[in-house]
Design brief:
Blueprint lengths: L1 H22 L1 H8 L6 H27 L4 H25 L5 H22 L4
Length: about 120
Amino acid sequence: MLATIYLGFQALLYLALAAWCTLAPDGTSKALGFGLTNGSARSEYITVYGGLELGMAIFFLLTAMNPDWRRIGILFALCTYGCLAVFRLGTLLFVPDVGTFPKIMIGVEATMTVLAALLYFGTRP
């Protein structure tokens, strides 16, 4: 039950992010510190931040809906958020002038990593 809720939340989160980044690329990219300086940059931003996040939303939704796939969905979240948190921490420690958004996101990514680890290692295969 908890895995279904976690995966469903991930699906909704990534669906919202995909829509936001696709429909308002200038605003979302500025919030991240990116400048969409030409059509190629805009295309790449919408593709990665819109398309990839939509794909993740669909994957999380499918794993939430299928009991046989839930464990792999949790493992995917653990790998994804774990790597994001490690890289985010590295940038916070070694990259100068990091803004507020990345400092907020380390908390989100670390929390999602811990929850995924608890769900993955705390349940039987």
